[in-house]
User: Fold this.
Amino acid sequence: MASTSPSPARTRQAAAARKRAAAKPTATDPLTEFEPIRIPGDDEVEEDRIPLFYIGDVEYTIPREVPPGAALQYLRQARESGHDLATPPLLIRVLGEDAYMALEQSKAVTEQQLEKIVQLIVDLALGQKEKEKEGGKARG
Assistant:
């Protein structure tokens, strides 16, 4: 006598088909309501700069807020080459070529002064001062 019930393989296939149909996402496409992010051009950004150091009577400044792109560049170069080789490009980008060259060529700058300047720029670029304000521990 032949069985009228479906074979176990057919039952598994039907169950799997029902599962697949039920598993289809019903959420809307996240890009449906997405608005493109507008980032102003560099020439549209007014940079607020503050004095960082003086050599003689010449003032050298840095931006009050280091652009996030400078931190990204530093982190990429640190990953590829190490922190020691990533630091000079960060300093040049934040200080500017003239200020960097003034420090490099200064006969009067001390190692302690230079370390303080470098550490401050790295900390600003990586957001360490914000972490301190939030109760985090800064690198030191």
Q: What stands out?
A: The chain has a mean pLDDT of 82. The longest helix spans residues 8-23.
